[in-house]
Amino acid sequence: MTRGEATQSKIHYKGKQDDFLVFVDDVDTYKKWLNDKSTPLAHFISAFQVFVTHRQGAQGTYDSASKMALSAEFDTDNTDDVIQKILEKGTLQISEMPERQGPTNDSMNSMRAK
């Protein structure tokens, strides 16, 4: 992989009051899980955390969702149950971040052979 290049996969759920996100590490396993719930969530999610974007869609500032926000939207504050609902009813969004450009270390310029 090139320096700085990365792919970010997240599930976006548009709620009544706010937008919620869950990050997914392995998209293929997630897609299999949608049809076969016997696959443990830990196989494709590394952080069991729900993020809220303050009505900014899938963009904006990501903050941890409070138990009050989860309870108001999903009728439970159990993070595992909320994550499962978001994964089932949310939409997958994959964004690719391009590689960084520019010099690798300007301070090493005097050490280069001329």
From TrEMBL:
Residues 102-114 have a biased composition (Polar residues). Residues 8-100 form the Ribosome maturation protein SDO1/SBDS N-terminal domain. Pfam families: SBDS_N (PF01172). It comes from the Eukaryota. Residues 90-114 are annotated as: Disordered. This is Ribosome maturation protein SDO1/SBDS N-terminal domain-containing protein. It comes from Trichoderma parareesei.
